[in-house]
Structures are given as structure tokens and as C-alpha cells.
Design goal:
Helix content is 72%, strand content 0%. It is built from 4 helices and no strands. Helix 1 packs antiparallel against helix 2, helix 2 (60-82) runs parallel beside helix 4 (147-164) and helix 3 packs antiparallel against helix 4. The radius of gyration is 21 Å and the shape is elongated.
Length: 171
């Protein structure tokens, strides 16, 4: 295989991975949007029940909190996936390009390690709390922590993407 053919294959693979990652981002974003809409609906129902019907649904606050927590954690993963978390780059921008590349590489590795930590510890905590029950819904308590290992997996996927593939120049 010639060098040109090898480069075309590598670029084709990278393009395919980029499409999968952007598809994953879209799925997470749409899932988060639906969760937010459901959460808003539950809160509206809760307020309506409290002030109009004078009977607050017991389950509404607990379920809304589950959705809010899950939405927050998915937002963390999305932020890592898009490299859109807030950062102060005053010193970073003044460093020479080779040092910035090393720091970017170190950043990607730390993000991956953070994702592994979230997955591992989140899985342990979810399984530890699964046998206890949430008071209002009767659902497993571990359900509220299930999003932590899921977020860890997403962060690892996004971190590996940025470490090995990244975005095309100019995109």
C-alpha cells in the first residue's frame, strides 16, 4: 500500500470517528433536552398541585431532582466533549506552541483519568446504594447515582477522541 493510500485510509477513519462522536453528542444533547422538558413539566405539575389543587404530589420533587442531577452530569460530559468548559488562558496563550501542545496533551490525559475515576467510583456508589429505596417513589436509591458512571464513560470517550483524533483544521 502506498503512502498516499495509507493517508487516505487514516483520514477516512478519522472522518468516520468524527461523525460517530458528533452523533453521540447529538444523542446526549437531545436526551438532555427531553429530560429538561420533562423536569419542567413535573415542576409545573407540582406547583399546580400545590397552589391550585392544594395537594402536592409526593413523588414530584424527588423525580425532578433525579432529572436535574442527570441533566447536570450530562452537561459536564458535553462540556468536555466540546472543549467548552470555562478556562483562563492568559498564561497559556503566552507560552510557546510546543509547550502548549504538551499541556493540551496533559489536559486530555487528565480528562480521561477523571472520566475513569467517575466511572469507577460512580459504579461503586451506585451498586452500594441500589438496595436502599427512595422514599417518595419507591425506586432504588442507586438510580440517582447511575448517571455518574454514564458520565464517566462519556468523558473517557470524548477524552480519547480529543487525544487521538481531534477536530479537522478549520472546523
Amino acid at each position: 500500500m502506498s503512502r498516499l493510500e495509507s493517508e487516505k485510509q487514516r483520514n477516512g477513519f478519522r472522518h468516520s470517528v468524527r461523525k460517530v462522536i458528533h452523533g453521540l453528542e447529538n444523542v446526549v444533547e437531545v436526551f438532555g433536552a427531553y429530560m429538561m422538558a420533562i423536569m419542567v413539566g413535573i415542576v409545573i405539575y407540582q406547583v399546580f398541585g400545590r397552589y391550585v389543587l392544594h395537594k402536592t404530589p409526593a413523588w414530584s420533587e424527588e423525580v425532578a431532582l433525579l432529572f436535574m442531577t442527570a441533566y447536570g452530569f450530562l452537561s459536564i460530559a458535553t462540556g468536555f466533549g466540546r472543549k467548552s468548559h470555562l478556562s483562563v488562558t492568559l498564561l497559556f496563550d503566552k507560552l510557546p506552541q510546543p509547550i502548549r501542545k504538551v499541556l493540551d496533551l496533559l489536559n486530555d490525559i487528565i480528562i480521561i483519568l477523571f472520566g475513569i475515576f467517575l466511572f469507577y467510583e460512580g459504579y461503586k456508589f451506585t451498586t452500594l446504594t441500589w438496595s436502599s429505596i427512595l422514599p417518595a417513589t419507591g425506586w432504588p436509591n442507586g438510580l440517582q447515582y447511575l448517571i455518574v458512571p454514564v458520565t464517566g464513560i462519556l468523558i473517557v470517550i470524548y477524552g480519547l477522541y480529543w487525544l487521538f483524533i481531534g477536530e479537522e483544521e478549520g472546523s
